[in-house]
């Protein structure tokens, strides 16, 4: 029956175009939605993913990067005592109020990151060049995200105010977009001048790199059993990034809304696609009735419908993949927060394939009209 299903698709392809397009649109909606979710919630952990640190050390129970509380300076010494640790850096985080040079309008909430400006430092090493780090070493110098310049009302080279202290924007770069605010990078000294913990008060986080051959998971577990130097908790970079993203996705209710929308997309896709397939089956009822009168069982005819649904699913999947890739690329080029991983793309493909199969099973009811008696009318 496979050749019959394929030949019907080839010779009567116009009948199957609406079903293939319905699957394509369902796949595009699903994949773009996933890309937006990954992009938006991925920005909650941009401090972690844009840095090269292996371990993050913060206050116990911290749910997300932006909820950090100061940890004692002795924690840095505890980290350096471990022979597997290569280097340790303090990282300061504070929420602040931004105003443009003229102090016009209301303030903009910003997240100030205080980091080391030495060459080879770990924090934001994926987005900061050595020249930008050297520029940040200047007193009261800050770096902002390029896509936030209009919101901040400030361009590179211009002055602004953070917590009533005058700062100068030395550069605007890509890759700093944050969730719920605007990321601003500064040196440790500049951040302390804006209200971050003083030098003797510790830091919001300490980040560490490990020597080659060290397993971050094993080192993290070893630190997890040591509370001698005060309250602190150690996470690997992957753990802390995932922890921050899951908090915003699940604990804020946003993830529930996303899952609800994904369910709606799948339901609409099943309804539209199954209706398209049912109409195709119904329009071929006389042909199916003839085959049934010649001795072909309804079970075999049902397999033809399901095979057609699989072929349509394959075509719709390819079209959806191409269209989704184009749309995600366009969104990324206009600084829209989107991201896609191979795991997420594979999950979308599996869902679209399941949607096609389910639609084919629903369309089987159209075969009930294929009764040989209808040939006598």
From TrEMBL:
Residues 260-372 form the ABC3 transporter permease C-terminal domain. This is ABC transporter permease. It comes from Aquincola tertiaricarbonis. Pfam families: FtsX. It comes from the Bacteria. The lineage of its organism: Bacteria, Pseudomonadati, Pseudomonadota, Betaproteobacteria, Burkholderiales. Its main location: membrane. InterPro entries: ABC-4/HrtB_transporter (IPR051125), ABC3_permease_C (IPR003838). Keywords: Cell membrane, Membrane, Transmembrane, Transmembrane helix, Transport. It is a multi-pass membrane protein. It is found in: Cell membrane. The chain crosses the membrane at residues 246-272, 309-332, 344-368.
């Amino acid at each position: 029956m496979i050749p019959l299903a394929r030949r019907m698709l080839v010779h009567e392809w116009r009948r199957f175009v609406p079903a293939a397009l319905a699957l394509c649109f369902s796949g595009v909606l699903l994949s773009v939605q996933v890309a937006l979710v990954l992009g938006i919630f991925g920005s909650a952990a941009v401090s972690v993913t844009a840095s090269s640190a292996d371990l993050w050390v913060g206050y116990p129970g911290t749910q997300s990067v932006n909820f950090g509380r100061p940890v004692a300076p002795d924690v840095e010494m505890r980290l350096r005592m471990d022979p597997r640790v290569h280097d340790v850096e303090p990282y300061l985080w504070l929420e602040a109020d931004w105003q443009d040079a003229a102090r016009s309008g209301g303030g903009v909430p910003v997240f100030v990151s205080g980091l080391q400006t030495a060459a080879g430092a770990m924090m934001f090493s994926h987005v900061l060049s050595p020249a930008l780090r050297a520029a940040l070493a200047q007193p009261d110098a800050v770096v902002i995200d390029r896509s936030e310049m209009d919101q901040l009302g400030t361009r590179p080279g211009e002055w602004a105010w953070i917590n009533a202290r005058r700062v100068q924007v030395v550069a605007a770069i890509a890759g700093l977009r944050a969730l719920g605010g605007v990321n601003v990078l500064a040196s440790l000294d500049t951040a302390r001048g804006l209200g971050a913990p003083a030098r003797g008060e510790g830091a919001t986080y300490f980040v560490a790199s490990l020597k080659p051959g060290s397993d971050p998971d094993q080192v993290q577990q070893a630190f997890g059993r040591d509370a001698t130097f005060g309250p602190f908790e150690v996470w690997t970079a992957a753990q802390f990034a995932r922890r921050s993203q899951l908090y915003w996705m699940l604990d804020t209710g946003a993830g529930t809304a996303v899952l609800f929308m994904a369910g709606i997309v799948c339901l609409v896709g099943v309804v539209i696609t199954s209706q398209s397939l049912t109409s195709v089956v119904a329009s071929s009822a006389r042909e199916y009735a003839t085959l049934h009168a010649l001795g072909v069982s309804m079970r075999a005819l049902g397999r033809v419908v399901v095979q057609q649904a699989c072929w349509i699913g394959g075509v719709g999947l390819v079209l959806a993949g191409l269209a989704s890739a184009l749309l995600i690329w366009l969104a990324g080029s206009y600084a829209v927060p989107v991201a896609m991983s191979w795991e997420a793309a594979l999950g979308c493909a599996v869902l679209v394939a399941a949607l096609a199969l389910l639609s084919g099973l629903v369309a089987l009811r159209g075969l009930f009209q294929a009764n040989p008696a209808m040939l006598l009318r």
